[in-house]
Design a protein that fits this description.
Shape: globular
Low-confidence stretches: none
Order of helices and strands: EEHHEEHEH
Radius of gyration: 15 Å
Helix content: 25-40%
Strand content: 15-25%
Amino acid sequence: MHDNMSIMSNQMEFNADGRLVGFKGKLIHTYNKREMAKINQDYFDRNKNRTNVLLMGDTIGDLQMAEGLNPADNVLKIGFLNSHFENLEVYKSKYDIVIMDDSSMDVANAILNKVM
């Protein structure tokens, strides 16, 4: 990660066998994103002058995640649709890129590699 990048996300904890055993800190989910913006005000203060946002989510509600930031010049929204494929058209109308049934970060990494 580059010095000029900031990430707000859930941080997973794994055991010695590589199995997910929990999460560190308060879990961010669809229903508490506005609350997390208040709790993590220092994150938003540090990033208030950022003009570019890469927003990634797997629900339509995730599109609100950048609301705590000042209006950015550029917001690229990547949606992960891993089930309920009947919602594809809705996702396509809301997200700039929709990745279906793929848990890799290859697309996001390729975009970041191009712009960095």
